[in-house]
Amino acid sequence: MTDEVRSDELPTTAVDPVTSSGRDGKVKVAMIGLCGCWGCTLSFLDMDERILPLLTEITILRSSLTDIKRITERCAIGFIEGGVANEDNIETLRHFRDNCDVLISVGACAVWGGVPAMRNVFELKDCLAEAYVDSPTAVAGAAPVIPFHPDIPRLTTKVHPCHEVVEMDYFIPGCPPDADAIFAVLDDLIHGRPVALPRSLNHYD
Fold first, then answer.
1. What is the pTM of this model?
2. 105 and 162 Cβ atoms separated by less than 8 Å
3. Helix, strand or coil, per DSSP, at residue 83
4. By C-alpha distance, which of 42, 66, 49 is closest to 175?
5. Is residue 33 within 8 Å of residue 107, measured between CB atoms?
6. What tens digit of pLDDT does each residue of 122-176 get?
7. Quick check: 87 and 80 in contact, CB under 8 A?
């Protein structure tokens, strides 16, 4: 349809001059959640008081925290939480790849598909039938309906980790990653150091 608008093309309110000038010289960061649980975003918030001095060095543009719908200017760093499970996820991930210098997979879902990828061992039609037709919570007597509408993103046949759709530059594993791991990677990048994620922040045994 010719009147369709992609999610990254939704209109945005112009930034006021004071806010815009406050961003000058800061490292621009974008972050988004695809198919996941938001646990990695909570880990970002778990940096606690360390976030405050970070905000003097970075400015966060598109983000699940701000509900900004698109990247309005090129970003140095993009954080992706969640795997790719529908067409909207693909569109969003490609938009981030096109508009971020460095793109980072954050958490198990982004790195290898995580819990959502458990459906990969089944046919998609069987998953939909289990969820909507044969569900034990289905309303008795109601006609079973599998939702289908142009406004609902179509599911991909399988759930994919981000690097199977676009090239990713770094990976922060974990379910969710420790806040210290996210901080270490971000601190290295904004200060121009090679990313060094020590094993002490990157093991789960």
1. 0.84
2. yes
3. strand
4. 42
5. no
6. 999 999 999 999 988 888 888 888 988 999 999 999 999 999 999 999 999 999 9
7. no
